[in-house]
Amino acid sequence: MEKKEIHVNQNPESVTTTNSIPQESIENKILTLRNVQVILDEDIAQEYGVLTKRLNEQVRRNLERFPQDFMFQLTQDEFENLRSQNATSRWSKRRSNPYAFTELGVSMLSSVLTSKRALDANIRIMRALVAMRRFLVANAQVFQRLDRIEYKLLESDHKIENLYSRLEEQSFKPQQGIFFDGQIYDAYEFICDLLKKADTRIVLIDNYVDDTVLTMLDKRPNSVKAEIFTQQISNQFKLDLEKHNQQYPAIDVRLFKKAHDRFLIIDDDVYLVGASLKDLGKKWFAVALLSTVNPNELIPRLIEEEKRD
User: Domain 173-308, what fold?
Assistant: First the structure.
């Protein structure tokens, strides 16, 4: 096969006016794409003193010398990502995606570009690529550690964002309030939000409960223990409770006939609830946080009174 060559001429239309770039500038042009170090056609053409399209035309005439591990064209995603990393992109006017040349590809260019300037440029680019490869090999463990550190930092950032989100969400949600007749969903959502934030326990003291209360308590995390103290347990509610506990985290229901008001204990907080949970929003009622009441004193007395009954 006849060898096809390109020689750098001094025609102003084919020679760039930019002087040869220094060695450190060449190293700055080296990119990592598809886990390999490459240099783009435009940077090579600048160093060779030819237009990029002329360089690529000559390469296309010798494609058999440039397999995929010697040269590849950037995908649209790769090109867009490359441009996004450069605020003043010099590739903004390109109509086609650049070609990337690996160390092998740059070496092969010396067989189709034989001018003195091209050969000198080839030597500088090859030295830069080899130096970069040696640097990466010598510091491989450092880069691996940096990758692990970056991954851990990203994990930490994600956890912190979630924490801030939860704290912000909790800070804007009221701990107590008044609800008027017709605010059925608002009241329901308010109580469910309280139940969802439980960490260890929920104790409900409510004389009138039904299966809807079981559904509300299922909003709690699975690890949270739930108990109901109520003044009557009908046969229907016994059946509902039995079926419920066969499928969902169990709720313990006990008889207790000495309560007039309704109380909701969530971890270390005690709330006074002005309406039965099954009747939320049907009439005016209030939910008040009893900040001075210690549930660890209230619950033992509750259990003691229950045993007496």
Answer: Endonuclease; Chain A (3.30.870)
